[in-house]
Specification:
The structure holds 2 protein chains of 2 kinds.
Chain A lengths: L2 E5 H8 L3 H11 L2 E5 L3 E5 L10 H11 L11 E10 L9 E8 L5 H17 L7 E7 L7 E6 L4 E2 L8 E2 H7 L1 H6 L9 E5 L5 E4 L3 E2 L12 E7 L2 H17 L3 E7 L2 E3 L5 E6 H8 L5 H10 L3 E5 L3 E6 L9 H12 L19 H15 L3 E2 L5 E2 L1 H6 L22 E2 L4 H10 L7 E11 L2 E11 L5 H14 L5 E4 L5 E11 L2 E9 L1 H6 L6 E7 L6
Parallel strand pairs in A: 4-7, 4-14, 19-22
Antiparallel strand pairs in A: 1-3, 2-3, 5-13, 5-14, 6-13, 7-10, 8-9, 10-11, 11-12, 14-15, 16-18, 17-18, 20-21, 22-23, 23-27, 24-25, 25-26, 26-27
Helix pairs in contact in A: 1-3, 4-7, 9-10
Chain B lengths: L4 H13 L1 E2 L1 H8 L3 H13 L3 E13 L1 H9 L2 H6 L5 E3 H4 L5 H10 L3 E4 L2 E4 L7 H7 L6 H9 L3 E13 L1 H8 L13 H6 L26 H15 L3 E2 L5 E3 H4 L19 E5 L6 H10 L14 H4 L1 E4 L4 H10 L5 E10 L11 E10 L5 H14 L5 E5 L5 E11 L3 E4 L2 E5 L1 H4 L8 E7 H9 L5 H4 L3 H6 L15
Parallel strand pairs in B: 7-11
Antiparallel strand pairs in B: 1-6, 2-6, 3-5, 4-5, 8-10, 9-10, 11-12, 12-17, 13-14, 14-15, 14-16, 16-17
Classes of the chains: A alpha+beta, B alpha+beta.
């Protein structure tokens, strides 16, 4: 989740409350406090609330939460004659662009940092790392409309941000630090998205880098936004959040016409929600007017419509409100989670163990009773441990991860004995004798099931020991069994046997082959047993 | 108290020899050296002998060190990899250059000028090489260097010398009764009555016995079983299911948007092949694209059934809860599961790519958010967390959502899991009309809190000594229960 830095002085000024009040209430508004510093507080908000990624947005919500300023904030958008044209060639490259003009702002350092913060968070959360949405903020007074968003040749050049000389788009992709990070999004396309003004000055090479020309500084008074992307809804959300943030920072918003469509649309959406549905969900008994009052504090416009309905206008920046229940959650937050008295419902049910878990518990008792200590190793392993070191053929039913995190963990275990051998290796320096067991999931094909395995390592760990353990396990499980000479090369020939129950092979036991001991760097004999617990299913 | 036979035997041997090592004395009295040390200390307590303990340090080469004995140290290998001179840039291509160049320079084997490395002579055998061959504490600086470079480790060995004191000599001179005492009684001695005339050896109760380590369940399994018991007591049905899931059940059915980063190969383990979609998948498509028949707008965009067919290792046990719900639509349903889940994270002290998750759901007529908080409070109280509070939370598949926190002395409020009511977008496609309360909890986090663990790996790659020494029960505790 994005971490937002909130400078106290700016936050206090915008909110109209002191920092201690704000810090105390932040967690109950849904924020995790990361750290409290001398002059700022770093907080985390949920990814569904990009409107809280700026000091301005947090102040707006906090004012309502503290009851200092309630109801919806008005966002006025006035006319302008700034126009954009969009090149149809971009349809398969980066089709959507949104924009707006913000005038009359004075961006002090704190406001610029806040703007950069919200931009960064939007890139990450809404923009999916700029692939879905990328944002450019420009000094409008350095360029001349109309603007053109078009597909440019890679040989086109301009001076990118933080550089002094012109570079071609191709060079930017391979040399510029931002190019190296984001070029993958567009570099396989025949044309590169580019925004330029009436005189051919480049504003931006989305989603990679802005031009140096339109850099925003403390002297900037008028801004033009470019928000490009592959998803219209996400582009719209980003434009709405940027515009409302900048309006809250003191700017005034003006329209932009993009191929005849007017941007931005900052009008609220409407919902009429049911009081009884809200109360049924939350377990509260709130009246329509109480719900409306709470929603006003959550910065909605809300008024009761009769006893069971509340009419709500949802501000454009609340892109998380997808469903009536999202409104009810805001009612709950506004009511205060800490004010809800908890209650257990009278639902009468009878608990029931899962049969597989019941068996596992029984098996644990038997193994522990025989003196084995339980271990709980990873289910992710690799073919060297699972098969090669065990002198066993690789299992075609083992599942391989497409992008393993390390060479140690490339497949899901199909057997338990090998992971026990690895545990013995890890504990080689610990006092002997050691007797360990594991019971847990293995996966073959797409089938998950449980096995149990146990090993003993000490100077007297031999076939008789393994046989005795296997015999005791089968007896305690109430299973009649037969044995047959096994051909499992993990064991010494003549000291190995397969366990059969009703004609089906269910397990194996014996004395581990010295070559396997060598492979696991062990220097004492090991007696081992492994059993497929499906044998207990009827 | 009288001397035991063993003490008397040792004293007699010492009287004869004056002093000795436990090994030598052990041979005389036919006991192993550890026993001799023990008797020695007992005699020392009575002022009859003196035990001197000396620690000697010796050095053992690591695997890497052994490797270099064979192939030469990196600086030596690097030195031999070129003739008289070589550009630094070129030598940098050699993987050994990072360690080797600095060392060649420190040892004066090379000079570097204008980016060119030139040999200064024929590189005599360095003190490091000599010390690696025969590490000795006589050259502590070089030995420390080798330890720092990970080429050797130091091992301590302890030796003992036992010397008789004048009091001991006096006592031995006065004569010792060396008649054999009886240790373990035989069956014959017991049944014949012979025991009446035997000198029975006295044992020293001030010495703790050699530890006996019983077989037992893993301390972490113990905690898991405690949670299972609590939920079974609360009337929940236990779930168990496959760790292999389709993207559909792991993500789509839980209203996770298809472009959510958590679904990508970066965060989720994907497996080869695809899995079938269940009947009724079209309702999920509608829900994602436009909210279906609910008041939801959906995520918009296009929902791709191919993406839902992807095979993944489950990232949460909620994939089991939703499937259980789909096949058990009649209220009431109360179910829980504890199982391994998988996230593509590198292993470090606080992250493992697989860990246990606890998952609980309650579906019934008229259950509410307040009841969800009730279940959570009850569960955490039974887990021994007395103070529980609730804060707003966010999870893609619940609304409203809540993050329960428990108060832990020394840590303050600690977030412990997440919960909420399944969104209508999750339940409506299957015709589930009652509210579904749901919560999840990282069990290993609780283990860290309850067992004071600092490193999660201890749970999965356990040191057997840690399991042996972690008690099964946490000592005296308050009992609440149906006392009569």
């Amino acid at each position: 989740m994005p971490i937002i830095s909130l400078p106290y002085s700016y936050l206090e000024r915008l909110t109209g409350a002191d920092r201690d009040t704000i810090i105390t209430r932040l967690p109950m508004m849904g924020s995790d406090i990361e750290r409290i510093l001398e002059d700022q507080i770093d907080v985390e908000f949920f990814p569904c609330r990009p409107d809280l990624f700026s000091t301005e947005g947090v102040a707006r919500a906090m004012q309502g939460f503290l009851g200092l300023k309630t109801g919806e904030e008005q966002f006025v958008v006035s006319q302008s004659d700034v126009r954009f044209t969009v090149d149809p060639n971009l349809a398969d490259i980066r089709p959507f662009i949104g924009s707006a003009v913000i005038k009359g702002i004075s961006l002090d350092n704190e406001a610029i940092l806040s703007l950069m913060g919200v931009q960064e968070a939007l890139h990450w959360v809404v923009g999916r790392g700029r692939a879905k949405v990328a944002i450019g903020v420009h000094d409008l007074d350095q360029v001349r409309p109309p603007f053109r968003y078009y597909g440019a040749l890679k040989s086109r050049s301009f001076v990118p941000l933080d550089f002094e000389e012109e570079m071609t788009l191709e060079e930017i992709c391979s040399v510029h630090p931002k190019g190296r990070m984001y070029a993958y999004i567009v570099e396989d396309k025949p044309l590169m998205p580019l925004i330029e003004d009436a005189d051919g000055n480049v504003l931006s090479f989305p989603p990679i880098i802005n031009g140096e020309l339109t850099r925003v500084t403390e002297k900037t008074r008028n801004i033009i936004l470019d928000v490009t992307g592959t998803d219209l809804r996400a582009v719209t959300t980003a434009v709405q959040i940027l515009c409302t943030t900048l309006i809250s920072a003191g700017g005034s918003c003006e329209q932009v016409s993009i191929d005849g469509v007017t941007w931005p649309d900052l009008s609220p959406t409407e919902r009429t929600v049911s009081v009884s549905e809200c109360n049924a969900l939350l377990g509260l008994d709130l009246s329509a007017s109480k719900i409306a009052q709470i929603l006003q504090r959550m910065r909605f416009f809300a008024e009761p419509k009769g006893d069971d309905l509340v009419y709500v206008r949802v501000p454009c920046y609340r892109s998380d409100i997808m469903h009536d229940w999202d409104i009810f959650e805001d009612v709950c937050i506004g009511y205060g989670y800490e004010n809800i008295s908890v209650e257990l419902p009278p639902t009468a049910t009878i608990g029931q163990e899962h049969p597989v878990m019941k068996i596992a518990t029984t098996v644990r008792g038997i193994m522990a009773g025989m003196g084995f200590c339980e271990v709980m190793p990873f289910t992710l392993t690799n073919e060297r441990v699972m098969y090669d070191k065990m002198q066993r053929p690789r299992n075609s039913k083992s599942l391989r991860m497409l992008h393993p995190i390390s060479e140690e963990q490339t497949i899901i275990r199909t057997d338990l004995l090998p992971v026990l051998m690895e545990m013995l290796q890890m504990n080689k320096r610990r006092e002997l004798p050691q007797q360990i067991f594991v019971t847990g999931d293995v996966v073959e094909g797409e089938v998950t099931y449980q096995k149990v395995a146990g090993v003993s390592i000490h100077s007297g760990a031999d076939f008789s020991h393994a046989y005795a353990a296997a015999d005791a396990l089968m007896r305690e499980l109430g299973l009649e069994y037969e044995v047959q000479e096994s051909d499992d090369d993990a064991f010494i020939p003549g000291r190995r046997a397969s366990v059969f129950v009703s004609g089906t092979m269910a397990g194996v036991f014996g004395e581990i082959h010295p070559a396997v001991l060598n492979a696991f760097d062990l220097d004492q004999p090991v007696a081992a047993v492994e059993l497929d617990l499906r044998v207990l299913e009827n | 108290m009288a001397l035991t036979l063993n003490e008397k035997l040792l004293l007699a041997a010492l009287y004869e020899k004056g002093n000795g090592t436990p090994e030598d004395l052990g041979k005389i009295i036919n006991r192993d050296k550890d026993a001799v040390i023990q008797y020695g200390y007992l005699l020392e307590d009575r002022g009859l002998c003196q035990v001197t303990r000396e620690v000697a340090v010796s050095y053992v080469r690591t695997l890497e060190g052994e490797h270099y004995i064979k192939d030469g140290l990196p600086e030596r290998q690097l030195y031999e990899s070129f003739d008289n001179s070589i550009p630094v840039a070129e030598l940098n291509n050699n993987p050994l250059s990072r360690i080797g160049i600095g060392w060649m320079k420190r040892l004066g084997w090379i000079a570097i000028q204008n980016g060119i490395i030139t040999k200064t002579g024929d590189a005599p055998r360095s003190h490091i090489e000599a010390a690696l061959n025969n590490p000795s504490s006589k050259d502590p600086k070089t030995v420390q260097e080798l330890i720092k470079r990970g080429l050797i480790t130091s091992e301590e060995s302890i030796s003992y010398t036992i010397v008789i004191t004048p009091d001991g000599e006096k006592k031995a001179k006065a004569g010792l009764d060396l008649r054999e005492e009886v240790g373990t009684l035989t069956s014959d001695q017991i049944s014949s009555g012979e025991w009446k005339n035997l000198p029975l050896r006295r044992y020293d109760i001030t010495k703790r016995p050699r530890p006996l380590y019983p077989g037992k369940t893993h301390p972490y399994q113990h905690l898991i079983d405690e949670m299972r018991r609590i939920l079974l007591d609360m009337g929940f049905t236990e779930l168990y299911g496959s760790v292999i899931q389709s993207g559909f059940w792991n993500f789509d059915a839980l209203f996770q948007p298809q472009d959510h980063p958590a679904r990508e190969m970066q965060d989720t383990f994907h497996l080869a092949g695809t899995m079938p979609l269940p009947d009724g998948w079209e309702a999920i498509q509608a829900m994602h694209e436009n909210g279906g028949n609910t008041s939801s707008t959906g995520w918009g965009g296009v929902w791709d059934p191919e993406k839902a067919r992807a095979t993944v290792l489950r990232t949460h046990t909620t994939s089991l809860s939703i499937q259980y719900l789909v096949s058990h639509k009649t209220p009431p349903v109360k179910a829980f599961g504890i199982g391994r889940v998988y996230r593509r994270e590198a292993i470090d002290p606080t992250h493992t790519p697989e860990f246990e998750q606890l998952e609980g759901i309650v579906m019934d007529e008229g259950v509410t958010f307040r009841h969800l908080m009730g279940y959570l409070s009850e569960f955490y109280h039974r887990m021994g967390f007395e103070n529980v509070r609730f804060r707003p939370g966010y999870f893609p598949y619940t609304e409203p959502s809540v993050e329960p926190e428990v108060y832990v002395d020394g840590l303050g409020w600690v977030e412990l899991g997440g919960a909420g009511i399944f969104r209508e977008e999750v339940t409506a496609p299957w015709g589930v009309t009652c509210p579904v309360l749901a919560w999840g909890l990282g069990v290993s986090r609780v283990a860290m809190l309850k067992m004071g663990l600092l490193d999660l790996r201890e749970l999965y790659q356990s040191d057997i000594d840690w399991i042996r020494k972690t008690p099964t029960h946490s000592g005296r505790e308050k009992k609440d229960g149906g006392e009569c």
